[in-house]
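Schema walkthrough. Field components (list of strings):
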Amino acid sequence: MIDYQSIIDTIVTHSKEATNRGIVASYIPELANVSSQKFGIYILDANKKSYSSGEALEGFSIQSISKVLTLAFSFGLVGDELWKRVDVEPSGDPFNHLSLLEQENGIPRNPFINAGAIVIADILVSRLKKPKEEFLSFIQELTNDSSIRYNEKVALSEKRTGYKNYAAASLLKSYGNLHNDVESVLDFYFYQCSLEMNCQQLTSAFYIFMNHGKCQRGKIYLTTNQVKRINALMLTCGFYDEAGEFAFEVGLPGKSGVGGGIVALLPNTYCVATWSPGLNAKGNSKLGMAALEELTTKTGHSIF
Amino acid sequence: MIDYQSIIDTIVTHSKEATNRGIVASYIPELANVSSQKFGIYILDANKKSYSSGEALEGFSIQSISKVLTLAFSFGLVGDELWKRVDVEPSGDPFNHLSLLEQENGIPRNPFINAGAIVIADILVSRLKKPKEEFLSFIQELTNDSSIRYNEKVALSEKRTGYKNYAAASLLKSYGNLHNDVESVLDFYFYQCSLEMNCQQLTSAFYIFMNHGKCQRGKIYLTTNQVKRINALMLTCGFYDEAGEFAFEVGLPGKSGVGGGIVALLPNTYCVATWSPGLNAKGNSKLGMAALEELTTKTGHSIF
Amino acid sequence: MIDYQSIIDTIVTHSKEATNRGIVASYIPELANVSSQKFGIYILDANKKSYSSGEALEGFSIQSISKVLTLAFSFGLVGDELWKRVDVEPSGDPFNHLSLLEQENGIPRNPFINAGAIVIADILVSRLKKPKEEFLSFIQELTNDSSIRYNEKVALSEKRTGYKNYAAASLLKSYGNLHNDVESVLDFYFYQCSLEMNCQQLTSAFYIFMNHGKCQRGKIYLTTNQVKRINALMLTCGFYDEAGEFAFEVGLPGKSGVGGGIVALLPNTYCVATWSPGLNAKGNSKLGMAALEELTTKTGHSIF
Amino acid sequence: MIDYQSIIDTIVTHSKEATNRGIVASYIPELANVSSQKFGIYILDANKKSYSSGEALEGFSIQSISKVLTLAFSFGLVGDELWKRVDVEPSGDPFNHLSLLEQENGIPRNPFINAGAIVIADILVSRLKKPKEEFLSFIQELTNDSSIRYNEKVALSEKRTGYKNYAAASLLKSYGNLHNDVESVLDFYFYQCSLEMNCQQLTSAFYIFMNHGKCQRGKIYLTTNQVKRINALMLTCGFYDEAGEFAFEVGLPGKSGVGGGIVALLPNTYCVATWSPGLNAKGNSKLGMAALEELTTKTGHSIF
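Field assembly_structure (string):
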């Protein structure tokens, strides 16, 4: 019997001692102003037992973690059609490079690089009447938590400075792989990234990926096969050009965000979310990565 | 209780009906002369029960599958030192491209692209007195099967035509990441690739990766942690630029070879090997990929 | 004494016989509707004698040829400051690739790839009170021809479909190498490209590059040194990834446009403009290239 | 009337005052041991008048300058057939990159990147009975100077350390664009690069490129058309990824070598050679580049 509480308490102790905490993202003021001293970790297991340590109930900007949730939502809506517009291979390149997009005629390498997530956003904008409202409802329902909100300030800041995303969306448009106009799709995209959630809420949302598509209340959102695919994508592409390293050191499917959050999961066993705003050179939370390595090493369990 | 025998018999039936069987590798006569009609599959489970169907006992050239075995051998010998000379990230590029090697100053992206495997070969050539003999003994011991042999004809054919490997080794040498001379390292490398094994022997050799580093006879070759890492590498990099697709469709760590073999494994559960010489456009066995997808779909189990 | 008239008349005869005339650009209706049968050529020599054959007085969309004129205008205004924001090396890549821009942190390879020309446009938008009006006046003055006009329909069509240019401008903006907003700069850029001129007017405008910076009426626009640099750029970068081929076959500095125009010049000797709307695979006028090769071969003179 | 002697004397004076002289190539001892204080310049004009200043009669390793001479020799022998195996476009990349070679299926971008020069060497090895002897005779005849020699020590040092060239040759071989074996071609290649010549001899050898293919003694080696093409290649590709810069600043066709030599020419007017062993970051002689810029600025003449 694994004592998760004791393990995560030790992780929090280690995190407090860490002197090199990485660099907090500074491209928008809302992220830059978060203290690098924050650290939270939360585990929700298959039996719905939960374990919490540190600032696990404090909300933060989930940023790219939202890409898994829009993928799940759109995959549920359109099925395998989706893979005609986005590939499933690791990019081997930093998350913002447009080179591959050009080489591969507008088909993004995977749904977790920005260009890929923008295509997914485009699919939702096409499919939904009120994309922002309906996506938020989806998240609230998935987590059974109606308190979850977009952070408008964050969304507007991203809108003002997100030129690389405008470049990506325009390039997609030039290849015919964006069906709505650039402004509408990016408006949705910046809002999805601005979602504010805490570690507890993230494990709640990612419960379906650990539980064959079924949420805590028993509603089925995705098939086993669809979950397998999303988890495979998280493992091979969830951490930009550090995906191999994460698979190698941690051995769990997961996804990071520039706000310092990471969610990961061991199928049939648990979901875990960490939050520590300082990032390493590849844009992933420095202490979050270390925490998850410690977790899988101490429990002795990974998907491998 | 899963009926593996019935599942693999069905797979063999389906393989016989397949009209599009891919293209047999033709760059050396020894590979070109193999019939594309061949198909074998073999499962060895965690309880050492085995299931066989088709030409599972017929030997073939394992080619790149050998890269996992040299990695395991050298990892056991030198430990984490190894990762100073080779990275652990997917390449996002076809297996023979030298571009990344130049961009990244002679550190191959991972041990399964040719350049990475040549660095691993170099480590063994440095460490072992009689590299070819000792590596063969390692395989024979691992499988408890002294009948396994190199195919000299294959090795010599590769030597005559393997100019891209000479290019890769020379480039590694120019960056100081090859410590022995090009000829000696490639001699070893061409021999390792020429190993002839059948599906049964491959599952036997890969048993350690399914069983936390312990072989069938109970000898420990690798730590749990080392096995986690090798499995992670197989998942993220085992199928060249189709690794994402394999993870996505099949959801098992595995490795393919240009001779038409694929080995894969579900940790704690089973090893599986398939053989079908026809390759798809990315150089992986066409029917082998399909067989493994059928297997994980029918059993309902993958690592995700 | 070279008989230019006879040479260009022969060239026109050959052009009429050509069966493979290339493909007329079709991305906007205004270009697509031009007949591929059109062919004109015009020579203006250092003594202001001129030679005309074919449809040399029929206007067409000069498109990328305008990049040399905005470069000359901005070089005259800001001097060598300009080279802090754009490099002078051939790109070795098709004209619309953004990859290099990412690799080189937002400094375009040269002022003739789209990203480079957009930076030049940005400089003019910063410097001029009424950029479009003032640039048009500059051209009218240079050619002593007040009939030259923008084609608004062309500019608006480009604006509606020019997503790759939006992508390039957004990417430049993300690197801080665009000082005005994307919309204003591209508005100017699309207008400059929409300039309508005929072969005669083009030789008139390019007279300064053949004559050490002095126009036909004797006004000095650029120094000898500045002209050397612009001519060097035309030679090394004026024909996208076919610049080497043009230098090799024709041996003159020049610039092509997707509307089928080419202008080239032999310093101290003559300017020549050709127009033939059909393009080769690299986006340069097929018969125009052939005409200029014939011209330099028959006259026996090139810069080499 | 331009006073070349006075100009080059001033250049030598400036070169003596230079404190930042670049870095002498150090990859082989024979180059590393040359003093960075050396500086020579030599002009040979169309009337066979010559001007000399500094150490213009001291021999040095011409290295990549030899690529123009093997190109001229092979172009004379096989004519336009040559361009089926090597392209004429600038590479936009440092001289030793193999990436483009892979992307473009073994056709080197131009004859002045190493891979291209190796293809030219291969052509000579195929065509000549005694390649090294016959190429040396060609140079001796061209210059009317039987004292010119290979430096065997240099050739052997290159052979021992030239792994990137082995990589390039092996890669060419893998694409079928090397008809002889790697060792024979590189043996010739390393010898050609080891040629020792002084500035006077270099201007003598390059006289044909300034004089429409005719040497000083009146023998015709190349047609006017062939010379145009070689000069165009020197201008667009003669200085690696600094070719644009050289065209832009100097405005003459030329070629540099890692031994610190540069030869350039103004058609119908003069040949000039400089020697200064210190290199800039792109591998071209730092003071040599500056000298040639000063020369074209002071004379007021370039090809543009």
